[in-house]
Write a sequence for this structure.
């Protein structure tokens, strides 16, 4: 019994860590969907570029900056900054010219951009995996420090230790901080107000003097910035990336956004958490290989019984 | 356009800011991913710097942007003067290198530093394009008798694709017949060889998939991002029935599989069944939700194929899938130790040597007939009540529901039929490759098929052919591009969509109308309002998929 509980707590910690990463990416999807009503299919690729930037920046500064937390901070800021430029460019090049075009057109350019960016990164950085551990070479030991939570015996009588590491704490805390900062931006600043106005009615917002193009651009920048934060966490947690990593994570994050109710920021975070937990628990208790199947089945079930997602507003169809 | 004719004063400060912004953004984009290559070396990683490439990217972007501004502001003369010599030098160097194997482009490295001839050609080509546009505009400006003439020329140029699309609509029957004749005689044309015929087979496979998906996306207006799932179901159903390696046959102790022709209908049925099973719960979802669920379904099928080892042999795949036979004769040379002892070879029967080209001809005609059947089926079913119900639902779901159409069932038929054709194409794929594995059924396939339908222009059957040729045929023909193939593929998807947002040969008219469409009038009106935001064409009535704006 004790062991069962310990195992559960262990998986819970893993699930929440993973869920935080999904949630941050899901916010990027949900914000863009809320404001222009399209699936930004290339958002997963923005995340992928974030992981590569993380690798490159760590590679560049790890030799000169020995104090690891400072190095992380610098990498975070740089990668947020430059990933945002990618987000901005993506919107400017592929989506802005298609405002008011058939909705599928934007979806196709999004998929096209996604293919383009994958191959762009593959051509420039090679197709091989890039493991961050090989670059940090143990300089990140401080993140691996673990705190014991539960000490028990497993079914075979061996000691079973449930721990939480500095890294896991950092991921969870950073997610909370970023969430708070972003909800404040959305609810308090002029930018957030314009975003909410555009979300409700774009043409009315334009009539009232809001620069709609700029607001949408900023939404993409914010989404990309969150993806960059998530990519740093992902790199420290999973440690390896390649040019294709964005696809599956992107799809899952979008699933999270739909699950939580698309257009709602707390919903995206909640959806991310649920996806992370379902994936972890399904893998831990049932079958590791079919965990993605479980995620999508959950999505289908939620959409059938609650089509607007968990926290979504009901979408009344008018004639 | 009128703003080209009315010469506004240039604003140097504004132009400078624009150029500086371009430089800054391109620098920010390229400094990391282009500038530093994290390379794995024995025992760790190393950084290779490529700052010249970054600088070149910035310079090229700024020059290109400058030319764009020049064309936009209506000052083509400086563009022509600068672009022509640059394009000339680059092209001369590249062409002389290409012809005589020299190293002139090596000496141009300082201004063209990318270590790849593809990128060098691309840069030279873009410069040449600017030169051509600049020179024609500059020449026209000198010779144009009046502003109106110049304006008309611009309008005509912009309208060119519209005219092509309209022409394609008007002469659909003739173009279709012409294409059909070409398709029928293609294998016997003198320039064809095994590899080009193989490409033709591949293109036709995608044409068939495109036509199949067109039933779902084009006619019924359902956005399906997981079409590859049905393709996979068809391929695996056939492989499991036909291959002597199939775990199912082995379990039942059967040595010889079913022939292609017998298995084909079964594979289609299995795919249609998969379509019904998936469609039943999810078809009441709208637009994007449906897209993401179908995408998820596609991934689920792939993951299952990968992990259900006892049925699908997982990542190893199923091999030894027989090619289609003719009249019970095998089209492959029969080996001594083959399980098919009783089978006679078709080529010995008709008294010919075995030739791979002959076999490819057979495959070519099989897929041609299958594709044409799909097309014929689509054209016919559009005129049946169920086809009309699909189009009605696509145009206005609420109105159709009020008139007594059951939306879920109607959509389900479209979904199942589309899936069935996907299954047919899948079994053809299996028999052509003689091997199936989950790798062939990734999301990218679904994306490619959807791109073919959308780029071609919804509901346009000829558009699908054109798009398949552009997206599948062209990259295959230019295999030398190698690594750049998918890069250009992605870029082409974006550029074509930006150029023609409703598809190359857009045609989204309902098959029937209450009255004859006032075709000319509508086209006039469309030309007039082309500048405006609101699409006023008949082609874009306000349904969920077609409009950019969501409903309030």
């Amino acid at each position: 019994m004790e062991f069962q509980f310990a195992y559960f707590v262990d998986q819970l910690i893993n699930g929440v860590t993973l869920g935080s990463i999904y949630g941050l990416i899901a916010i990027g999807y949900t914000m863009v969907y809320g404001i222009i009503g399209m699936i930004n299919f290339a958002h997963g690729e923005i995340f992928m570029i974030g992981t590569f930037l993380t690798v490159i920046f760590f590679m560049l500064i790890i030799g000169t900056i020995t104090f690891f937390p400072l190095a992380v901070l610098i990498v975070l800021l740089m990668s947020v900054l430059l990933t945002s430029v990618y987000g901005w460019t993506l919107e400017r090049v592929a989506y802005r010219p298609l405002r008011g075009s058939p909705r599928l057109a934007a979806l196709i350019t999004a998929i096209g951009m996604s293919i383009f960016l994958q191959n762009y990164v593959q051509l420039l950085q090679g197709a091989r995996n890039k493991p961050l551990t090989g670059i940090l070479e143990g300089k990140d030991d401080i993140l691996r420090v673990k705190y014991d939570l539960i000490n028990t015996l497993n079914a075979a009588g061996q000691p079973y230790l449930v721990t939480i590491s500095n890294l896991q704490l950092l991921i969870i805390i950073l997610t909370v901080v970023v969430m708070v900062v972003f909800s404040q931006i959305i609810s308090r600043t002029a930018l957030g107000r314009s975003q909410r106005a555009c979300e409700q009615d774009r043409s009315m917002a334009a009539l009232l003097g809001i620069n709609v193009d700029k607001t949408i651009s900023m939404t993409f920048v914010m989404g990309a910035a969150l993806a960059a934060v998530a990519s740093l966490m992902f790199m420290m947690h999973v440690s390896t990336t390649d040019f294709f990593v964005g696809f599956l994570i992107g799809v899952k994050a979008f699933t999270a956004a739909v699950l939580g109710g698309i257009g709602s920021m707390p919903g995206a975070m909640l959806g991310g958490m649920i996806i992370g937990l379902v994936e972890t628990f399904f893998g831990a208790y049932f079958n590791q290989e079919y965990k993605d199947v479980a995620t999508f089945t959950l999505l289908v079930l939620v959409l059938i019984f609650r089509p607007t997602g968990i926290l979504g507003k009901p979408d009344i169809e008018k004639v | 356009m009128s703003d080209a004719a009315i010469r506004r004063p240039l604003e140097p400060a504004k132009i400078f800011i624009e150029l500086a912004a371009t430089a800054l953004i391109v620098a920010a984009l390229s400094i990391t991913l282009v500038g530093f290559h994290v390379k794995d070396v024995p025992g760790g990683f190393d950084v290779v710097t490529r700052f010249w490439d970054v600088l070149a990217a910035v310079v090229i972007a700024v020059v290109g942007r400058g030319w764009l501004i020049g064309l936009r502001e209506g000052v083509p003369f400086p563009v022509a003067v600068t672009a022509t010599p640059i394009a000339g030098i680059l092209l001369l160097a590249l062409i002389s290198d290409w012809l005589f194997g020299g190293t002139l482009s090596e000496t141009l490295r300082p201004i063209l530093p990318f270590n790849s001839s593809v990128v060098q050609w691309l840069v030279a080509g873009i410069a040449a394009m600017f030169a051509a546009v600049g020179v024609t505009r500059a020449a026209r400006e000198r010779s144009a008798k009046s502003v109106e003439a110049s304006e008309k020329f611009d309008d005509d140029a912009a309208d060119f694709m519209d005219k092509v699309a309209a022409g394609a609509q008007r002469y659909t029957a003739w173009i279709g017949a012409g294409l059909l004749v070409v398709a029928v005689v293609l294998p016997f044309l003198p320039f064809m060889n095994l590899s080009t015929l193989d490409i033709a087979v591949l293109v036709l496979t995608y044409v068939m998939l495109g036509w199949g998906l067109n039933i779902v996306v084009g006619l019924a207006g359902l956005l399906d991002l997981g079409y590859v799932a049905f393709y996979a179901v068809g391929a695996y159903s056939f492989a499991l029935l036909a291959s002597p390696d199939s775990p199912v046959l082995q379990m039942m102790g059967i040595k010889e599989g079913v022939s292609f022709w017998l298995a084909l209908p079964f594979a289609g049925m299995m795919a249609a069944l998969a379509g019904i099973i998936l469609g039943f719960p999810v078809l009441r979802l709208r637009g994007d939700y449906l897209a993401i669920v179908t995408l998820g379904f596609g991934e689920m099928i792939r993951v299952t194929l990968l992990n259900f080892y006892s049925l699908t042999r997982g990542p190893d795949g199923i091999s030894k899938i027989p090619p289609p036979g003719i009249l019970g004769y095998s089209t492959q040379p029969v080996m001594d130790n083959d399980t098919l002892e009783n089978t006679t070879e078709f080529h010995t029967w008709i008294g010919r040597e075995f030739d791979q080209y002959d076999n490819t001809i057979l495959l070519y005609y099989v897929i041609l007939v299958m594709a044409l059947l799909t097309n014929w089926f689509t054209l016919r079913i559009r005129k049946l009540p169920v086809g009309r119900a699909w189009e009605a639902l696509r145009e206005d779901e609420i109105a159709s529901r009020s008139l007594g159409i059951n939306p879920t069932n109607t959509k389900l038929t479209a979904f199942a039929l589309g899936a069935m054709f996907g299954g047919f194409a899948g079994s053809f794929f299996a028999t052509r490759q003689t091997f199936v594995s989950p790798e062939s059924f990734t999301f990218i396939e679904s994306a490619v098929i959807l791109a073919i339908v959308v780029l071609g222009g919804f509901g346009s059957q000829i558009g699908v052919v054109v798009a398949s040729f552009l997206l599948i045929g062209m990259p295959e023909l230019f295999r030398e591009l190698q690594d750049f193939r998918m890069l250009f593929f992605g870029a082409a998807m974006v550029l074509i969509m930006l150029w023609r947002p409703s598809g190359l040969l857009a045609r989204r008219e309902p098959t029937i109308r209450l009255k004859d469409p006032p075709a000319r009038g509508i086209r006039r009106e469309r030309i007039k309002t082309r500048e405006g935001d609101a699409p006023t064409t008949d082609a874009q009535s306000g349904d969920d998929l077609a409009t950019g704006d969501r409903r309030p």
Remarks:
- The radius of gyration of chain B is 27 Å.
- Residues 159 and 527 of chain B are 8 Å apart (CA to CA).
- The first strand of chain B starts at residue 36 and ends at 41.
